[in-house]
Amino acid sequence: MERTFVMLKPGVLQRRIAGEVITRFERKGLRIIALKLLRIDKTTAETHYAEHRGKDFYEKLLEYTLSGPVIAMILEGEEAVSVVRRLAGPTNLGDSLPGTIRGDYAARTRLNIVHASDSPGSVEREIDLFFRPGEICAWEDGNQEWF
Ligand code: CMP
């Protein structure tokens, strides 16, 4: 089983769509093994988005990320990284099709409502940034193969 990291950006709580977005991941059969609502600080946001430092949208991206609480999650499932990236849809607004989270809920690339790790290396780094080991609660599906 693979793990991935997801962050629901401030617009999700502001628009009261947290339940709907989380449901997309659960319906697919992914397991939530960690989840918390938090307001991240500037250092965490800068570390998280370090690869975008210097890009023209960087300052606005930080401003948006810091504008309200986010929901951080760890999801587990087979090929979770690519499955979640496909559920989220492409970063660029013009590429995200209806049926994906970004395709259905985002009207601007910068406000694309969800962040999902793009590789196993990012997963490890992002989980370490947002969660302590004791906050992760792994569980199994028992004897039933629901998904
Ligand atoms: P996310 O998956 O959180 O990773 C980096 C974020 O930068 C991305 O989602 C968008 O919110 C933002 N972003 C990436 N490319 C652009 C762009 N061309 N214009 C504005 N914002 C962008």
Describe the structure.
- With 147 residues, this protein is α+β, with helices and mostly antiparallel strands.
- The chain has a single domain, classed as Alpha-Beta Plaits (2-Layer Sandwich), CATH 3.30.70.
- It is built from 7 helices and 4 strands.
- The protein has a 4-stranded antiparallel sheet with strand order 2-3-1-4, with helices on both faces.
- The chain is globular.
- The chain starts with a strand and ends in a 17-residue tail after the last helix.
- The site of adenosine-3',5'-cyclic-monophosphate has 8 residues, from loops.
Features:
globular; 38% helix; 147 residues; four-stranded antiparallel β-sheet; Alpha-Beta Plaits
Explain briefly what this protein structure is:
With 147 residues, the protein is α+β, with helices and mostly antiparallel strands.
Strand order of the largest sheet: 2-3-1-4
Tally of alpha and pi helices: 7
CATH class: Alpha Beta
CATH topology: Alpha-Beta Plaits
Question: What topology emerges from the helices and strands here?
Answer:
Elements lengths: L1 E7 L1 H5 L3 H11 L2 E8 L3 H7 L9 H8 L4 E8 L2 H9 L12 H5 L8 E3 L3 H11 L17
The structure holds adenosine-3',5'-cyclic-monophosphate (CMP).
The site of adenosine-3',5'-cyclic-monophosphate has 8 residues, from loops.
